[in-house]
Amino acid sequence: MDLEEIYSSKIRQRIIEALTQSSCLSVTKLNRITGGSFSGLNPHLLLLEKEGIIKSEYQKLPKQPKTRMIRLLKNNQRTQKLIKAQKSLDEEKLLC
Predict the structure, then answer these.
(1) Quick check: 52 and 73 in contact, CB under 8 A?
(2) pTM for the whole structure
(3) 31-41: per-residue pLDDT in tens?
């Protein structure tokens, strides 16, 4: 899938933006940020993981159930291009 197609979804844009600002987020927090449902968020996460943009892993936190954590793979060239595109869009918003 090309980067334009990956970035065409507002939900995927929000995921990338949130993960750019934070090194790792739980699916619950990403769900709150995107304002959708877990079932609506999961296909986007699966696509981004398949494309090598993110990595998900389960962590066991003290006194909490296992939590699915999402991390942006910043060393991936495609991810770097998406981050750069996100920054450009943010700068354009400030100028308007």
Answers:
(1) yes
(2) 0.87
(3) 999 998 889 99
